[in-house]
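Could you join me in thinking about how sequence relates to backbone shape in a protein? Would you write everything just below, so we can both look at the same thing?
***
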Amino acid sequence: MAIADIAPLGVDEHELEEIWSDAPGIPGFFSTVDHKRIGMRYIYTAFFFFFVSGLMALVMRSQLSAPDNHVVSPYTFNQMFTMHGTTMIFLFNTPVLAGFANYLLPIELGTRDMAFPRLNAFSYWIFVLSGIFLYASFVVGKMPDGGWFGYTPYTSKVYNPGINLDFWGLGIVFVGISTTVGAVNFIVTSFKLRAPGMTINRIPIFVWAVLSMAFMILFAVPAVTLATALLELDRLFGTAFFVPHLGGSTLLYQHLFWFWGHPEVYILFVPATGMVSMIITVFSRRPLAGYIWVATALIAIAFISFGVWVHHMFATGMPIQAMSFFSAVSLIIAIPSGVQFFAWIATMWRGKVEFTTPMLFAMGFLLIFLLGGITGVMVAVLPFDWQVTDSYFVVAHFHYVLNGAVVFPIFGAIYFWYPKMVGRKLSERWGHISFWMMFIGFNVAFFPMHILGFLGMPRRVYTYPSGLGWDHLNLISAIGAVIFAVGTGITLVNWVHGRWWGPKAEDNPWDADSLEWSTTSPPPEYNFAAIPVVASRHPLWEQHPLPHAEALVDEEGPKSLSAEGALHHQNTETTGLDARPERALELPHPTYLPFVLALGLAVFFVGLLVKATIVGAFGVGMALVGLTWWAWRTDVDLS
């Protein structure tokens, strides 16, 4: 293999920049397929939904802060409750993690882009258009009001005749397309576009986490897509999949929903733990303890997570033998999570810990995840689950898991990778303040809910009478929510200030170990002028200087390449296990086709919503034109 520490022969960095750059202005905005721009858009869009959903949560906590309160009406409360949960699960947690994965995966793998750049852009446009579709319900005064889970028969046409639930059902089907095609891209990129020498046992733990997440998505998301699609067939066309007196089953809906719903917990949790592993490794100044065990634990969680969904249905009257099996699996899944926990402790124990803002968020995650995990094991025990089902104990548990154990790693990732993404540093002082306000506010807001559950407070209530012992605890919870919200707002201000006025960041300000820190901050459009060659799990700590694969040009021109490197608009394709170079893969140029195809699907869903055949047919036609053009013109610049 020819090795050089310079750009590939025959191509300089100015030429690469010209080849890889997007068109300026609006044309570039709609036609880009650059994974970094798409990843940042995912993050920005997801955080917009995060703060909107957070405002809804503050209104709901205000309503419940005192008995017999009248901040909002019961109808509005139900709408906010539904949209808060839907937004946090479908429009924030999953997409923001996809955004980090989109941005980081190629540069951590030492490649120039995702395996399918146009599919990547299509995934983002579906996500943002599905969010607009869902929130259009607010504009027309028809926000969904059936809960973020959409249980039948309450969501059937008989009991909910308006279009409120159609916004929800069609929106979930729509956003599911984005999640599924994104997962395909992550899998292929992880297996086929790694830097030469990055064997399967050398890839960063975050890549293992994204890979595990992607496989879970492929098997889980089709279930919720099917559940909501069948619900919409019942609502729009009069079928009877969930109508018992016509031969349907309401429990069928719950099985389909939770077959996605509990793996979804780990779809969010697993990439969050990958972020934590990367942060703890860097700020403990030593390799992650038990790398093989942690990677194995991630795969084990992905596999076992598909055997726990019924513990959401222990109160539905299922046979005790079946519930015993799912109870056992729900206990067993704590083992691989514990393996990761002890690996993090061992890494810090043997390292020299630096208490930076990312490290504080990682350590805060450990404490919150510990409590959330303990309560998760508690609800896996049948008698205890029967006691707390549909109580505020369950609200406390899933917020500790889905808010604390996911949002805290995400905020840690913001402070960790912000210098690489933006090229400027965030304020450490304000980062510390943000962390402590979020950590204190979170526990003040959600820990009392465990006690409220034991005191008998049910979930999904709009108000409650005085004298039940719930008054003070709900007030404390509301105060904690405000403190937590202020903490998140500080990071938002820190982000905006740092974006324009923060000090410029070095290429590797944390002295980190993985490949994303070997390129400039922010990375150029092409990521790497020359593809790096990897011989270690920690190339920046153990390979000095970092070698690069040279793309050779012979007398026939640049199309005749050695397999090691890549020229022009190309990636180096490698073998799946040992990352041996196979060929230089030509990548598509910027194009409007992903946007056109996504817009056609959006028009189709609008047609279904308003029951306008012409609108739906126009959307289908628009999508088919885009799809046909996409398949027909594979290697031409269509921008």
Summary: The radius of gyration is 25 Å. DSSP finds 19 helices and five strands in the chain.
